[in-house]
Structures are given as structure tokens and as C-alpha cells.
Design brief:
59 residues, alpha+beta, two-stranded antiparallel sheet, two-stranded antiparallel ribbon, rod-shaped
Amino acid sequence: MAVPKKKTSKSKRDMRRSHHALGANSCSECPKCGELVRPHHVCEACGTYNNKEIIVKSK
């Protein structure tokens, strides 16, 4: 079984984990109602996607 010969320092460990951070979520504005919408998702406020009404919302 492979066993490390030396202790990995905090610096080496943290440099290896430098790519593990989460990025910020991207959002765009809904062209119909102006709410923030995740890309490629139906708008929660008005129920449209790609300028088509997918979910019929009652006002």
C-alpha cells in the first residue's frame, strides 16, 4: 500500500485545492418581466422560456 514519505505542508495542500472554490452563479434578465433568471431555465416569475409561455401563470 502506498504511504506518503513526508507530511504534505499546509501550503502544498492549499495550492492543490486552489481550483476547488465555487464560482459565482451567472444570471440574465428575463426579456418579458425583467426578473433575474438562470441561463437555460424557465422564468419563475412569468413562466416564459425563449420568449414562449411555458407555464401559464394566473395574475
